[in-house]
Every structure is written in C-alpha cells, then in structure tokens.
Amino acid sequence: MLVDYILVGQGLAGSILANHLINAGCSVMVFDDPLLSNSSKIAGGLYNPVTGRKMAKTWNADNLFGYLTDYYPKLQQQLEADFVNDIPIYRPFISPEELNEWMGKSADIDYSSYVQAVHNSSAYGNQVSDDFGGILLNQSGFVDTGKLLEASAKYLDEKESLTKGYFNPADLKFEEGYTSYQGIKCKSVIFCNGHKSLEEQYFGWIPLRPVKGELLIIKTEENLRVIHNRGVFVIPLGNGVCKVGSTYDHQNLDEKPTIEAKNVLVHKLNELVKFPYEIEYQLAGVRPATKDRKPIIGQHPEFKSLISFNGFGTKGVSLIPYYAKQLTEFLTKNKDIDSEVNIERFFSLY
Ligand SMILES: Cc1cc2nc3c(=O)[nH]c(=O)nc-3n(C[C@H](O)[C@H](O)[C@H](O)COP(=O)(O)OP(=O)(O)OC[C@H]3O[C@@H](n4cnc5c(N)ncnc54)[C@H](O)[C@@H]3O)c2cc1C
C-alpha cells in the first residue's frame, strides 16, 4: 500500500491535520489506539481569545482566531456533523479596578474585535456572582470535541484511511526515497500522539510538560446562554447539562478522576455560580503541554521523514487548525514553519 502520509494519533491534532492534508489532495493513513489518551475526547473545547489570570489577548490570537472562526464551520459541513457552538464567554470582574481597566482596554483597537460588551454592573447576577460587572467576549465558544473526533473517524473510515490500533515506531523502516510501516509506504510519518510522545523512541526527547486536567459534568435547571468563566468555566452543553473545568496537575499523570480535583472544582464552582446543580460524573485527561507553552512542529533532526505535530497543551482547539494549515503548506508547498513553533528551536536537546 502507498500513501502520502501516515499519521500517528487521531486526537484533535491528527483529525484536523488529516482533514487539511486530504483537502490539499494528499492521501493519508491514520493510526489511532483509542485506549491511549483521553485529552481530546474529554476537553472542555473552549476557544477563548482573552485568557489567563491577567486576562490578556492569547498568544497569536489574531492569526489563530482569524482562521478558526472560518475553519470549524466548514469542517462541520464537510464531516456532516454539528459540533461548533459559537457563544459568548462571560467573565465577571473581581474588583472595580478590573472594571476600570477593561473600560479602557475595550476601546483599544487590539482588543475591540474580541469584546462584545463591558458591563459596569451585574449583568448575570441571577446566575453568577458579578457585583462589579463583567466582560462578554466575542469570537469565543466551544467545540464538542467528542463529536468532532467521532465524525472525523467516520469520515476517515469511509475513505479507508483509519486503522484502529497501536502504532509501533520500532516497525518503521527507512528506505531510499520513502519510509515504510508494516507494508505501507509513505513520504513522511507525522506524530500527533500527544503526551504519549514521551514514551516513544524518535520524539521522546522533545520537551513536553504534560498536565493532567479534570472536569465535572453537572446538571442544572438553570438556562445558561453564555459560558461563565472565572476560576472555572461552565459550558452549557444543552438540556441542562454543563461541563465544569478544569484542574492542573503536573505530578500525577494518570487519566483517572480524583477526589482532590473534585473538591477543588466544587469549591471554585460554588464561588462562581448561584444556581443549584447536581454532579453527574467526572472526567480526567492529560494535556500535551510544553515548557514554553508553544507547539512543537517540524522534521526530526536526523530522520527527516518523521515529523512532530504536538505540544498543543491547554489550547488545542484554538492552535491546531492554524498550525495544521501551516504544516500542510510546509509539506505540500515547501513553505516555512514559524520559528516560534518550529521544532528546530529544541535541536540542541537531541
Ligand atoms: C481536562 C481538560 C480540559 C481541556 N480543556 C480544553 C479547552 O477547553 N480548550 C482547549 O483548546 N483545549 C483543552 N484541553 C486541551 C486539549 O485537550 C489538547 O490541547 C488537545 O486535545 C491535544 O490534542 P492532541 O491530538 O495533540 O493529543 P491527544 O488528544 O492526546 O491525542 C493523541 C492521540 O494519539 C493516540 N496515540 C498516541 N500514541 C499512539 C500510538 N503509539 N499508536 C496509536 N495511537 C496513539 C492517542 O490514543 C490519542 O488518540 C483540555 C484538556 C484537558 C485534559
């Protein structure tokens, strides 16, 4: 069998990269062992242009959001599924100073397209604690990542481009002009294997810094029309079901829910919301984060037909589409990969 590219992993990175490569006229074979990682399956799926405790525009926001707001709706059409939810994020202010800061900042040309409204008094006071008002963000929402992965698997399966099972890098063979894996010949093998890369022989050296995260699924009678986000996010999935997250743990890197994380989430949730709710269940996964919080993309320093598409950390939903396009153009048009995300910045570690 002959394909242009083999992809290892069908999380968000593998799914979205496969879509870009297929749309560019390339053939792919994606290997995925569904038992190996939960990150993409359980993620909150938020895309949020203004993030962090200091509420700053997220890194590279103009490029990332300029592309993703167009890309996801098109992907929905192509996969014939419904997984994009373009709804505002509401972030209550914690002090009059924060309100003042945003009154000024929202007029700033750099921020104005991401701000729908700055409320100088309580706007959602029946749902959350927002005595000092809050900010309503634009170009935000969430992707139901579970549905996206399912639709992508179906699409790839119909094209006979998906193999469910473990990809064993030890079976790779490097021949003159091509690379082969268990009888499949290709130009390159692209590793979209998330935090599992650390256990893998070719890219185990890239500086990933995995972070475990946990979420709660709750049920409420309250009708939420925005995503509330302060300390935790509360994403309305429909029918009163909400996703609440998330936690950050660098030490314990299994994918099992813990009572400690549940307590942290409940505490933060109770500080934010005023409505009653019931906890349905809990989810856990490990994010493929990196030390400098930027993705790691490009060719292996020694085995040039091996490529890393990894390190999407806490923001895979916003980062992956833009960089899938960039990697596709690198492979098919010989265009450059941005130096800030290029694997070359870590070659000294190899
Ligand atoms: C609790 C939590 C909340 C999150 N919330 C958000 C959010 O709100 N917004 C956001 O943007 N991001 C969020 N994230 C982060 C997001 O999940 C990641 O950025 C993204 O999913 C990474 O995707 P990936 O495809 O690179 O990795 P993964 O999702 O880990 O996918 C890797 C895939 O490779 C497969 N694989 C690995 N090795 C092999 C092998 N040898 N053979 C076959 N298959 C293999 C795995 O089974 C898996 O399917 C969250 C993560 C967690 C844990």
Going by CATH, the architecture of the largest domain would be 3-Layer(bba) Sandwich
When the domains are counted, the total is 3
Number of helices: 8
Low-confidence stretches: none
Q: Tell me the span between the first and last alpha carbons.
A: 32 Å
Look at the helices and sheets and give the structural class.
alpha+beta
Using DSSP, what is the number of strands? Answer: 22
Q: Could you report the average pLDDT, rounded to the nearest whole number? A: 95
Might you state the CATH topology name of the largest domain? FAD/NAD(P)-binding domain
Please identify which CATH superfamily of the largest domain we are dealing with.
FAD/NAD(P)-binding domain
Helix content range = 25-40%
Order of helices and strands: EHEHEEEHEEHHEEEHEEEEEEEEEHEEEH
Largest sheet: 8 strands, mixed
Query: In percent, how much strand structure appears in the residues?
Result: 25-35%
List cofactors, ions and other ligands: flavin-adenine dinucleotide
- Order of strands, main sheet, comes to 8-9-7-17-18-19-16-20
Organism: Roseivirga ehrenbergii (strain DSM 102268 / JCM 13514 / KCTC 12282 / NCIMB 14502 / KMM 6017)
InterPro entries: FAD-dep_OxRdtase, FAD/NAD-bd_sf
Pfam families: DAO
Domain FAD dependent oxidoreductase: 4-329
Overview of the molecule:
This is FAD dependent oxidoreductase domain-containing protein. It comes from Roseivirga ehrenbergii (strain DSM 102268 / JCM 13514 / KCTC 12282 / NCIMB 14502 / KMM 6017). Pfam families: DAO. Helix content is 27%, strand content 27%. With 350 residues, the chain is α+β, with helices and mostly antiparallel strands. An eight-stranded mixed β-sheet has the order 8-9-7-17-18-19-16-20. A six-stranded mixed β-sheet has the order 11-2-1-15-22-21. It has a three-stranded antiparallel β-sheet with strand order 3-10-6. Strand 12 (172-175) and strand 13 (178-181) form a beta hairpin. Helix 1 (12-23) packs parallel to helix 8 and helix 3 crosses helix 8 (316-333). It starts with a strand and ends in a 17-residue tail after the last helix. The model has no long low-confidence stretch (mean pLDDT 95). The protein binds flavin-adenine dinucleotide. Flavin-adenine dinucleotide binds at residues 8-14, 31-34, 36-37, 39-40, 42-46, 166-167, 192-196, 213-215, 245-246, 285, 287-288, 310, 312-318. Flavin-adenine dinucleotide (FAD) is lined by residues 8-14, 31-34, 36-37, 39-40, 42-46, 166-167, 192-196, 213-215, 245-246, 285, 287-288, 310, 312-318.
